[in-house]
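Hi R.,

Here's the chain you asked about this morning:
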Amino acid sequence: MKTQVVRLAELGAPSVMRLQDETLLAPGPGEVQLRQTAIGFNLIDVYQRKGVYPLPLPTGLGHEAAGVVEGLGAGVTGFTLGDRVAYMNAGLGAYASHRNVAAEKLVAIPDGISDEGVAAVLFKGMTAQYLLLRTHKVQPGDVVLVHAAAGGVGQILCRWAKALGAFVVGTAGSPEKCATALAVGCDAAIDYNKPDWPAAVLAAMNGKKARVVYDSVGKSTFLHSLDLTAPFGLVVLYGAASGPAPAIDPELLNKKGCLFLTRPSVFPHNADPTTFRTNAAELFAAIQSGAVKPEIGARFPLSAVVEAHMAAEARATSGAIVLLP
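And here is the predicted structure, written out as tokens:
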């Protein structure tokens, strides 16, 4: 059968992406053939396209999508034709209208959750899931600090942490983004472009430092994160939007209050099918309860993938971007 696939022969500006027709073979043993209905967009797609995270060429793009099962390879069990499913770690190539995916990488989408909603939050939501429920199991009354609280993962973190009973302080890069952070559940939001922002964060926490700090910003926030963490608290460095965090002497963690520091990532937390599906079930339950809300800011046809990337880099949208084959 025919599929439309986004391919890159070189890395660079959005214009390097090309949508082309290809022949898709029948699914092999252990594979499922999907008609994709919604494709998730993530900033890692931009970094990989630009070569910040270099890829071997030629290459596809995209890590997550939702779709409908239209073919089953030999030995596949647990799925039937017509099932709605999703994935977030099946290898690059989610930017496609149809695709063969290993069955072990798929999770069934529950009734009541739309394909677009899953595509909008699966990658980001699974990141928030392990951060809130595995890296540090947030408890009622915890003081939680979330940097980049208006970002895709940040919004989910703040809303979900608040639903878990935490007191949540967010930081963001403008008054408008701080307003977004407040709208998604932060008890206070501080503009980290202001020179006195660490003192403002501490004041917002009523002088009580954070039990856990979720830091995806890195270079410009990391050392302040250490200062804003309570004794025996945890700093979770899971991104580097402003650049890599500075190297530190481990003794600094002792001096700052016997702190714990970790650098986790989403894929090791979902490395096997059983763990992935268990974690996804927790995310889907959070969506069904309203603790996580898919916020779709823009929809683009797959044929307008260049425009989608341009809009994302220009920060011309708020909320998730979804590509529609």
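One quick note: The chain has a mean pLDDT of 95.

Cheers,
M.
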